[in-house]
Design goal:
It is built from 21 helices and nine strands. It has about 550 residues and is α/β, with parallel strands linked by helices. The structure holds guanosine-5'-triphosphate and magnesium ion.
């Protein structure tokens, strides 16, 4: 389990809010998906994490309520009406408000929050300091009301400010007026995107005094219908006249209920987090990641082994062992002839090193290079492993897996050379039975030679007409003849018998060399292909887990 997730779990243990846990989940998803999923989506989610973390560090007792809307809709007038004070400039000149104005009810802790919101000190007002304590409204304690500039301004700075504070506020009061309430630009640009945040939204239809009484209801209904189309059904609509005070107590009450519940901050952050997590999940997918099948792995090892020339080396090991064994256990008179034949490993330009333990530096350069067919098999096997691992994954992850699977292939030739040259092929050890046979062969040769010398002595003595005593005999056969013939025959028979045994011995050695080489090659496949793929799968797993936490 990743540390982030552990951190998140610890937070649950400590009873910290579930918002922090969800933010932790999203943070985990962001850091694991970075570079793999679309940058824009990941950056947006990262901004949500950063914003949420910052907001959670600040006052939880305050609820930031932002008044937003078109120019002249009456934001500043509503602000003043709610505050019961003429704080914000209300004007006929459009647009009037250029800078966000803030009024805080219950000031402790609000200043830090307002600094974070970027409201300059000179635009911050403490409601309590402006009024007698008798006029304090307990229900609004904790309210930080913001009067924003207009969103439809010709001034770019206004858009930026509005967009920023619409993102930062805990709750939004969207002020519409009878002329522009159906304006498609407002609905498309601002209201529709707030569908995921409808819990923290309140819509005000201001200037209601300017609408004939008999038309008011149908206008409110029409607005309700439009909001429903925006995906904002259920969002309360309050009709007000900021100028004459109509509907202001209702609006105040609706705000007070939310402020005193102190839930808006959490609700807003949760909506932000789940919105970002949903957008990430839509591209990241939710399928469970699979593992690389064992069969695919062994296919990969086979392809790599062929490309590394393992079968050639193994064949050479078998032949060399046989030649060496025959040389050691063969009939000494003829076995020296085999010395004239080169060692198969050397004939293939494969040296066994000084001690014969492994292929030397120089020799690996003379290893046969992988053919195009072998190289193509490697590519196919790698692709199959990647396809297998990413079969169930969404497109960006499948692409990341594929990219990772080939990312280290440029190192392949070197890695395979090192694996083959670094493997102890096990051909250096001379089995004891070879030595025993060798001693025996020499004893037999010496016996035969002694018999021959004996017979030669007898012949010489006969030639010189010296008295010859009959040589000792065994079962009627003269001993020197028996020694000569028996020694030669036994030597040849022993050599023939050993040939059968050396065949088996060579096969066993070849099999063991094959096993050792494949183990080394398997390490190479793990390092160059499987591990990079697993890094991506782990990143996907962490992203999926993180998003699941964020969306729980
Ligand atoms: N009749 C009527 N006039 C209103 C009402 N609310 C505001 N006004 C007037 O409409 C004009 C604009 O009001 P503001 O409160 O400045 O509007 P705003 O939304 O703050 O405008 P900007 O700051 O330019 O974005 C002023 O002349 C107000 O007196 C209302 O409910 N009824
Ligand atoms: Mg204004």
């Amino acid at each position: 389990m990743t540390t982030l997730l552990q951190g998140a779990k610890k937070l649950i243990g400590k009873g910290t809010s579930d918002v922090a846990v969800k933010v932790g989940g999203l943070e985990q998803a962001v850091s694991s998906a970075r570079g793999r999923l679309d940058d824009k989506i990941v950056d947006d989610a990262a901004a949500v994490v950063e914003h949420a973390r910052a907001r959670l560090r600040l006052s939880a007792d305050h609820t930031v309520v932002a008044l937003a809307g078109s120019t002249g809709s009456g934001k500043s007038s509503t602000f003043n009406a709610l505050a019961g004070l003429d704080l914000a400039a209300v004007g006929v000149k459009r647009p009037t408000t250029s800078w966000t104005m803030a009024c805080a009810w219950g000031a402790t802790g609000a200043a830090e929050l307002l600094d974070w919101l970027g409201v300059p000190k000179r635009h911050q007002v403490s409601h309590d300091s402006m009024l007698d304590s008798s006029e304090e409204e307990p229900d609004l304690q904790g309210l930080v009301l913001l009067d924003l500039p207009d969103h439809d301004s010709t001034e770019v700075a206004h858009h930026v400010e509005v967009d920023r504070l619409v993102e930062l506020g805990d709750m939004l009061v969207w002020v519409l007026d009878p002329q522009k309430y159906a304006d498609a630009a407002v609905h498309d640009r601002y209201l529709k995107p707030l569908a995921s945040h409808k819990e923290i939204l309140l819509v005000v239809l201001n200037h209601i005094d300017e609408v004939p009484v008999e038309l008011r209801e149908s206008m409110i209904d029409d607005l309700g219908r439009l909001l429903k189309e925006d995906g904002l059904d259920g969002v309360p609509v309050v009709a007000t006249s900021a100028r004459y005070g109509e509907g202001i107590p209702e609006l105040k009450k609706a705000i007070a209920v939310r402020v005193s519940a102190k839930k808006s901050t959490k609700t807003r952050l949760l909506a932000d987090v789940s919105g970002a997590a949903e957008r990430m999940q839509a591209v990241s997918g939710t399928t469970k990641p699979g593992d690389v099948a064992r069969a695919r792995k062994s296919e990969l090892v086979d392809a790599f082994a062929d490309a590394a020339g393992v079968p050639t080396v193994v064949r050479a090991v078998q032949k060399a062992t046989k030649v060496r064994a025959n040389r050691a256990t063969g009939w000494p008179v003829t076995s020296w002839l085999s010395r004239l034949r080169p060692d198969p490993l050397r004939r293939l330009h494969l040296d066994l090193g000084r001690k014969g333990k492994n292929l030397t530096e120089g020799s690996r350069l003379s290893m046969p290079q992988a053919t195009q067919v072998e190289r193509a098999r490697v590519d196919t096997a790698v692709r199959r492993v990647a396809d297998d691992a990413s079969a169930e994954l969404a497109r960006p992850w499948a692409a990341a897996v594929r990219e990772a699977s080939v990312s280290r292939l440029p190192d392949l030739n070197d890695a395979l050379d090192m694996a083959v040259s670094g493997t102890n092929l096990g051909v250096s050890r001379t089995p004891i039975w070879w030595r025993v046979v060798r001693v025996l062969q020499w004893v037999l040769i010496l016996t035969a030679l002694s018999g021959a010398a004996w017979l030669a002595g007898l012949a010489l003595m006969g030639y010189l007409q010296l008295p010859v005593r009959d040589a000792a005999d065994y079962e009627g056969f003269p001993v020197p003849t028996l020694m000569l013939v028996g020694g030669v025959a036994a030597g040849i028979l022993l050599a023939l018998l050993c040939r059968v045994l050396t065949g088996t011995s060579a096969r066993l050695k070849a099999r063991s060399a094959d096993k050792r080489l494949r183990a080394a090659i398997s390490d190479v496949t793990e390092r160059l292909v499987i591990a990079p793929i697993e890094v991506e799968i782990d990143a996907y797993r962490a992203t999926r887990e993180g998003l699941a936490i964020a969306l729980k």
